[in-house]
Amino acid sequence: MAIFSESDKKRLQSSPWIKKVTDNHISFTSEFKLKAVKLNLEGHFPVNIFKKFKIDISLVRPEYPAKCLERWKKLYLEKGESAFNKETRGKASKGRPKKEFDPNDNESLLKRLAYLEEENDFLKKLHALANAAEKKNSR
Asked: What is the pTM assigned to this prediction?
């Protein structure tokens, strides 16, 4: 993507469908993403969708609208309308969801036991190294 000048950023930011513009990135509102995906699924072309919502695509590469729609459509088909409610990429992302520990699942228990045993071994070695370093320094 191109580097946006300050005037380009202001022009893009004037759209109600754009949440944020940085030097090289545009963040669209979840409402726009949802509407765009639905229109695309109805057969509208990505470029026409962006133009319909008066988003200035002259500032981006020609393939940008299609790539955005492709990514958003994949998310929509996997997770439904809720896919756009929570940011899953970048700084706003909360990372991978933690796996729930199931105490009734034997395989899960064995994996957890092995992990904890390795952690104990590591901590014992670390403690021994710290003690050895302390003895060496006290001489």
From this structure: 0.62
